[in-house]
Amino acid sequence: MVPSISDILRETVLGPGPKPIKPTAIHPLDGLSVAEVERACEIAKNNRPDQHIWIKLCTLREPPKALLAPYLEAERRGEEPTRPPREVDILFFILETRDLVEVIVDLDAEREVKSFVVKTHHAPLDRVELNEAKAAMLESPEFAQVVKELAIPAEIIVPQGWPYGADDAVDHPRRIFYILYTRDPKTNHPDSNHYAFPLPVTISWDIWGKKVTSVDWCYTGGEKDSFVKGTGPKQNPTAGCQPGEILPELRTNKVRDDLKPLHVTQPEGVSFKVTGQLLEWQKWRFRLGFNYREGPVLHDVTYDGRPIFYRISLSEMHVPYADPRPLLNMRQVFDFGDVGLGRSANSLENGCDCLGVMHYMDTAEVDPSGNGRLVKNVVCIHEQDNGLLWKHTNAPTGRAAVTRQRLLVLQTIITVGNYDYIFAWHFDQAGAIHLESRATGILSTGPIDLGKKSIYGTVVSPGVLGTSHQHFINIRIDPSIDGHKNTVVQEDVVRLPYSEENSSGIGFAVESTPITKSGFADADPLNGRSFKIINPNVINPISMTPVSYKLVPHPSQLRLAHPDALITSRAPFTQHHIWVTKYADDEVFCAGQYTNQSYGKAGGVKEWTERGDNVENEDLVLWHTFGLTHVPRVEDFPVMPVETHTITLKPCNFFTENPAIDVPLSNQSFNKSTTVDTGSVEANPCCAGNGL
Amino acid sequence: MVPSISDILRETVLGPGPKPIKPTAIHPLDGLSVAEVERACEIAKNNRPDQHIWIKLCTLREPPKALLAPYLEAERRGEEPTRPPREVDILFFILETRDLVEVIVDLDAEREVKSFVVKTHHAPLDRVELNEAKAAMLESPEFAQVVKELAIPAEIIVPQGWPYGADDAVDHPRRIFYILYTRDPKTNHPDSNHYAFPLPVTISWDIWGKKVTSVDWCYTGGEKDSFVKGTGPKQNPTAGCQPGEILPELRTNKVRDDLKPLHVTQPEGVSFKVTGQLLEWQKWRFRLGFNYREGPVLHDVTYDGRPIFYRISLSEMHVPYADPRPLLNMRQVFDFGDVGLGRSANSLENGCDCLGVMHYMDTAEVDPSGNGRLVKNVVCIHEQDNGLLWKHTNAPTGRAAVTRQRLLVLQTIITVGNYDYIFAWHFDQAGAIHLESRATGILSTGPIDLGKKSIYGTVVSPGVLGTSHQHFINIRIDPSIDGHKNTVVQEDVVRLPYSEENSSGIGFAVESTPITKSGFADADPLNGRSFKIINPNVINPISMTPVSYKLVPHPSQLRLAHPDALITSRAPFTQHHIWVTKYADDEVFCAGQYTNQSYGKAGGVKEWTERGDNVENEDLVLWHTFGLTHVPRVEDFPVMPVETHTITLKPCNFFTENPAIDVPLSNQSFNKSTTVDTGSVEANPCCAGNGL
């Protein structure tokens, strides 16, 4: 086999000898350093001196809970426990055999402790692989033929490579398909928004075979003739399209000039403390992990010393499209499994992505040759004012007590092809954790004949169909509500029957249903449904009920594809909002470890629930699937204003009073607001009454 | 009849002669000035020289749409149209006859143009009336007897007066009922949180008759004996209660001392312009009204010159409780109809309620004697940063384009008894309007025997039951989407059947159902349901579909009381999320004009829909009911961290592209962020690339 670009890169860049690491001061949950990444890969490569390997992933293998949980507890007690072995998961291809191999390297022992070949699954895609494939596809005779038939210059064409969604339940060769676009032909500017010029053709590519497997001309019809090919012009098919530029320098209309600056300052510094990856803020204490796949991970979350969550992360995001016409129906991406949240993270910048006083966290990534690289600023950490936290005016005296709400915000922004997502974990002062997700970026577009409409989406620019789609995000919540033995309880609020006591018919009450066996449940907002994670062994002395944290599931629309459709079997986690499993190490990804080109055999949360494990008063995991059905608006093009959703985990009879009761009352000497009229900072009577 | 305190006040404070106003420069939607309030009342009083009147309300009567709409349109065209007559609605009692009278005064003509007696309805409550009633009740022999039986000092007792919810379909005398509490007996501090010491007795009061009508001892039992009275001690019944103070000076634990200041500054001033009550910001233009009942009202809302909404306001808030046991089952308040959002508004303060650079709006209120008073700062207007607005990184080049989101925020905070609410209208730069509502304040509490739990709520402090309840808010949306002829369309997203075209079973599409006759509909998030207000006469040239604004209804739980319960007939608007009526002047309050002591005959949106009017391509009104079922948490006591809900009206194929595409890219020279590590304001590459 011919060595690839990265083979050469690996041979030339990587030094010769081993680089030992002494990780004694490293916390078990610290992300791998660049040196650790390189050392782990070195060990794996040294074990295979006669083979060329293409490294896909190199990431911290978190210690098993049986070791890590006692470690964290001892640490919180102020002890200095012995660190569990520092292990690394590496995934690579052996180029000679095309075997996909998982190994576990023990960095302390400097050796591989496990190695096995992965069968019938495909590794995720990586940037180098995608770039090489694209370069090769652009050199193919089939591409040249397409260019000729389109009668447009090859140099304006932008192919967007996609994970190949399954069209049958067969283990296909490793492949990609390309949707072709052009830059604005008038400018061919490298940052021209090509999604405004979709070409009516897709090209499929065999990655290992380095060959085109098919050229598929799109169905470009409308409501009346959607399944008839080629009614649009084949030559210069985007002649009727118009530029849809995002960058001001490429647009003809001018930007607004009436927005005045707004600055956020913290003259006395920030209120949070960062020690390595340990964060402490307003009674919260947790470790912020970060990996290639889930991005930021919250570990060992406690409030005022009480454990609440062992681990919270984003488990998967799946985005299937509505248009069933080949080949655009292959848009069925698993963004975290096929690519990775962490490895799609933007390096954030002061003043652009982040306003105020920032702390940034970096991560180490690996290239196919095993070289590590520090990616800067993948998480920005800062405080935000969020309006009022609580207020009450005592009517008899008129005395007001008011507090403002401060948030600790951990923000990560990712780019996955056309779309961009902003994920932010918000910690508040009243014991709640919120996950805010914002979808932005550019719609995935396809061609449509000029003047036609489609039931599969919205015409967002002439000749451009913004295809309807669904976004499914799954959040994995591993609770430790005052300990690891917890139960998930479904709670509805129900009307009470008429009775002597309820003669007026106004009575209502909570109906509780504990989930005793691993399984699933759905949101039901019209019945006021919530899910509590209780610790049945710890009773709140005030309410006399078990301590708990509550999740009100986001009642988003579930999977629209047919239940027996192949796409549904690839992501059964999209069929229910709530899943409860018994905890198991390595059960982390709800659509399975290997989603790329999966065809219903990848495992995942549905399979794990089918074990029927006891999950009552047990070490359990709660998974919540939410998202949105996105029927594009014209307003979502050429770039989409953020579509925001928030999931909240809040204490429910966990504390013995409002945990934010001790937040200082707001006052003007602290907050220094001004009025437009005077511009001066004034004292005022309300604030005078508020002590700080 | 004996003159009341306010009768005397009116006689002594009010001057003799008329005070003419020349309102020629006044806009038809400007709120009444203090002088106008007093002049209007003077006219009404002068017409009744032989009678004593008690003024309940005096508010601007907005001109009928037939006059106002053309006026506003002409004004927007730059013309100087003739102002419609300046009319005032006054509501008052004639003390001699106890008649409740509505009059309309024409301030231009200086005369009453209409006057009629209101039959079988009760006026809302006012502060003077409540204070007088409470003072008299505290002097009653029945109260003295209660004090004696409780064996506690009278001076620690705090009676909380409530509108008397209906217990039968009869027109009762005007009345109030009191839930009795005590301050912390150890301090008897005037701002002690009395909701931590509920007494097991309520007192009902006849307002006109000035007498106690009943003394009712509460049911204080728990799950096993909830409908058996008096198992708790009658003497000193709160002996087992504990203080639940809010104010730091009354609490024993100390406030947090680790929160650092966070300041928001706008060194070049704000980006909005206020001209009287006209607000202009980022292509938005609207008039901000304010009245006693709805509080802030958005009039004549346009974006970039295109009309979108004629009028948006909060129509009603209704809060029924779950506990059917007399007399705490009478908690069925209509906060806006029984009392008034506007007249419950706090005077907001820099640095406490509001952070940053503020503009405030005042309002004029009336007292029973017809004296006007300026209430300062009932709305604060300011800008907020709201994170990112849109971002995309162009993968082929790595070039990122990112904008931050600025909001214009109009905030009003109200106190209604124990509860406080924060309502904020948010205007964004992408053409959307959001209503954010935050519930805070103190739970309505009742007594429960120590050590018992109840199905009707949560024990939030020893001996204190935080009763479960529902909050229903109704927002009234009078659209003018590119004109007054609009249609509401219900849209679901539905799975498509298998077919040759949809052979993979992944296809889905929108199912549209126009609402052609006045009626109702419900939220259905699991079917992706939204409601579009379309203008069928204006077609978006890009999407080729009617222009529209979209409401995704908040899928909150509807009325839990039985459909045939009396309480349901008082507020049928709580039975459905969406109501559509044909526009009619004076159809503004969804539970009817007179909610206080209503018993199913108050009219309102249900009655109006029953006319079966055509609402397709018609001047229509869309009403949305939303809220929450609130099962209290211990964490909600002694004061509740905000519970936040947001309703959004967003453009949907109204514009021809993302309306925020012209927002300048974010950059560091504009936003001046800092990093914790260095504290310095740095330039950076991303921002360097962003022009402003």
Automatic annotation (TrEMBL), chains A, B:
Keyword Disulfide bond: yes
EC number of the protein: 1.4.3.-
Residue positions of the active site: 335 (proton acceptor), 419 (schiff-base intermediate with substrate)
Modification note: Topaquinone (TPQ) is generated by copper-dependent autoxidation of a specific tyrosyl residue.
SUPFAM superfamilies in UniProt: Amine oxidase catalytic domain, Amine oxidase N-terminal region
GO molecular function: copper ion binding; primary methylamine oxidase activity; quinone binding
Cofactor annotation: Cu cation
Keywords: Copper, Disulfide bond, Metal-binding, Oxidoreductase, TPQ
Highest taxon of source: Eukaryota
The Copper amine oxidase catalytic domain, residue ranges: 262-661
GO biological process terms on file: amine metabolic process
Family in the record: Belongs to the copper/topaquinone oxidase family.
Protein's UniProt name: Amine oxidase
Lineage: Eukaryota, Fungi, Dikarya, Basidiomycota, Agaricomycotina
